[in-house]
Design brief:
The complex is a heterodimer.
Chain A lengths: L4 H10 L9 H15 L34 H5 L5 E2 L2 E2 L7
Antiparallel strand pairs in A: 1-2
Chain B lengths: L8 H9 L5 H14 L6 E4 L1 H16 L10 E5 L26 H8 L3 E6 L38 H8 L5 E6 L5 H7 L2 E4 L19 E6 L2 H11 L29 E5 L9 H16 L3 E5 L7 H16 L20 H12 L2 H14 L4 H24 L4 E5 L16 H5 L6 H6 L3 E8 L5 E8 L4 H15 L10
Parallel strand pairs in B: 2-3, 2-4, 7-8, 7-9
Antiparallel strand pairs in B: 1-3, 4-6, 5-6, 5-10, 9-11, 10-11
Helix pairs in contact in B: 2-3, 5-6, 7-15, 9-11, 9-12
Chain lengths: ~100, ~500
């Protein structure tokens, strides 16, 4: 499996990272090096093996579905690059 | 008294309790060393005001006869831990200016135990790296040098600032985190001790996430006793982390008897790598002899899927990272790119992430995105998770044969020069974690203990891997190894 420039551009788009056109060939090359390394996994017989979901098997605890630490609007907005009138502000999304 | 910064946690604790030193004196000694050690670039956000306030409070507690485990002991905190009101940016440009409104559970546990925070420590960006060269703050530098050669060496990564600071006696100990070897490899490169506990021992709450199924915090200290003291203070059940284990935390220090007679130590044949330097092989053989002389039984074992650990890791870790790092979108915290006329929200995301993330982070996020994308999920991600199950089973099989701990080298080499790997392909850098990454994939505890010097005078470490939840027994084996190895070398001061 070889990654070409177009695939690299598609992956960058999916990851929401802007990559300039002229940087795509080098990026595709790096992906190919890493994926080439990963290809070794195809040598392993994984027939009948369940994919691991939890490394230390344990039941996740349950708790009441209630607010535990609410009413912290100021704290939550304190690090926002743009907060207005108690909300996060972003560029216009809907025309 | 001079050189208070050079004390171990255990010695400083004893002196605080018998009244021969105060926390304010200890803290001032460390702060003064930090000021002189700019060349190491270990501390990236200094918090002297907080430190002095905590030190005074600790002295008051001690005077009242209330001195918990870490009371008055000055430590450094890796920049990956969110610390309330103090910049916490995972050495990334995308978290520039982020000051959390909350405290991570591990740092809170340390403060509750009386610890004093000197500042935040350098690291690889989002803990992605093995040399501390991906940091937005610039490289952290190893206090060790090759003989009289003044070439700057890496302290390892990702907890490079933590390792450098402890090795150079800027603090008594530091926190680290370990996703593929990020505590143990830098500990080995700087001649200190570092333990990654069993997955679930330390709460991950408030630690900036890299790969959630692999990340664990742990202490980086000057010796094994200190690791036992600090680990106990760091861990414990936390309802805010659903993978935090609800198990009692033993008194690890009390388990350090040094008696390992009758313990079965496994030597995995698959860890003999082609092209491994003779010095590493010799160190490993020495370690084996030392444990045998201490009364342990040495057995050859096989961990057949070892070879596939790194490739599995480089699917699973980037996949989880691509998901965890999706939150850096320029909306809620950190950096937002300047937008051009007509740019919408997609351009905001794409420009923000291109400007805010460094090259290695971008690469891993994109690899993770690729292996999780439609059509490749089964071939890469699910296959890697199956291989991970087999790697874990390898360990379960040898533990079922009665093996108590496994001895391996910690790293395939001593510390290398900063910049030396610049032209290498990324996979070459990944090989640094070849002996440590299996432990994360299997969720096991692992500790790196300094065990010797190479021909250039650089420290080398040995790794011991333990059974799940048996950090106490593992620390005791490490203690026996430490006593036998008698490693006392320190870097010559040039900074």
């Amino acid at each position: 499996m070889s990654i070409d420039k177009d695939t690299a551009a598609r992956v960058a788009k999916l990851a929401r990272i802007k990559v300039e056109e002229d940087a795509l060939p080098a990026l595709a090359q790096e992906f190919n090096t890493i994926l080439g390394f990963i290809e070794q996994l195809n040598e392993v017989d994984v027939e009948g093996v369940e994919p691991m979901t939890s490394v230390t098997p344990m039941r996740l605890k349950r708790r009441e579905d209630v607010v535990t630490e609410g009413d912290q609007q100021d704290k939550i907005l304190s690090n926002a690059p743009d907060a207005r009138e108690g909300f996060f502000a972003v560029p216009k999304v809907v025309e | 008294m001079s050189d208070l910064n050079k004390l171990t946690l255990a010695d400083a604790r004893d002196k605080l309790r018998d009244g021969s030193v105060t926390s304010v004196e200890l803290t001032e000694a460390c702060l003064s060393e930090i000021e002189k050690a700019g060349a190491l670039n270990a501390f990236v956000h200094k918090t002297p005001e907080i430190a002095m306030e905590q030190a005074k409070a600790a002295d008051a507690r001690i005077a009242q006869g209330d001195a918990p485990a870490m009371c008055g002991l000055p430590v450094g905190i890796k920049d990956l831990f969110c610390t309330k009101g103090v910049p916490s940016q995972a050495a990334s440009g995308i978290l520039e200016g982020f000051t959390p409104e909350y405290e991570s559970t591990v740092s809170q546990n340390l403060f509750d135990a009386g610890a004093v925070m000197l500042g935040k420590l350098n690291m690889d960006e989002f803990a992605m790296g093995s040399s501390n060269e991906t940091s937005v703050y610039g490289n952290a530098v190893n206090p060790w040098r090759r003989g009289n050669d003044d070439a700057q060496l890496t302290p390892g990564g990702s907890s490079g600032g933590s390792a450098s600071a402890v090795a150079a006696d800027l603090c008594l100990a530091a926190t680290g985190t370990d996703t593929g070897g990020s505590i143990r490899q830098p500990a080995a490169f700087t001649g200190i001790t570092g333990i990654k506990p069993t997955y679930g021992r330390c709460s991950r709450w408030g630690i900036i996430a890299f790969a959630s199924s692999l990340d664990q915090a742990g202490p980086m200290t000057k010796n094994v006793r200190d690791a036992a003291i600090m680990l106990e203070a760091m861990c414990g059940h936390d309802p805010k982390d659903s993978t935090s284990a609800d198990l009692p935390v033993p008194n690890f220090e009390a388990m350090l008897t040094g008696d390992i007679r009758g313990k079965k130590i496994g030597i995995p044949r698959e860890y003999h790598m082609d092209g491994m330097p003779d010095e590493i092989d010799a160190l490993w053989a020495n370690g084996r002899e030392m444990l045998k002389d201490a009364g342990a039984e040495i057995v050859d074992i096989s961990l057949p899927h070892t070879k596939y650990a790194l490739p599995a890791y480089y699917v699973i870790a980037p996949a989880e990272a691509s998901s965890n790092l999706a939150r850096y979108d320029g909306v809620r915290y950190g950096h937002r790119a300047k937008l051009a006329q007509g740019d919408g929200i997609t351009e905001m995301y794409e420009k923000t992430r291109a400007e805010g993330f460094g090259h290695e982070v971008q690469r891993r996020v994109m690899v993770g995105t690729y292996v999780l994308s439609a059509g490749f999920y089964d071939a890469y991600y699910n296959r890697a998770r199956r291989v991970r199950a087999l790697i874990k089973k390898d360990f379960e099989d040898v533990f079922a044969q009665g093996v108590d701990a496994i001895l391996t080298p910690a790293t395939p080499s001593a510390a290398f020069g900063l910049g030396e790997m610049d032209d290498a392909d990324p996979v070459k850098m990944y090989l640094n974690d070849v002996f440590t990454v299996t432990v994360n994939l299997a969720g096991l505890p692992g500790i790196s203990v300094p065990a010797g010097l190479d021909h250039q005078g650089l420290p080398l470490g040995l790794q011991l891997i333990g059974r799940p939840w048996e950090e106490g027994d593992l620390l005791n084996t490490a203690y026996a190894l430490e006593q036998a190895a008698g490693f006392v070398a320190k870097p010559g001061k040039w900074w």
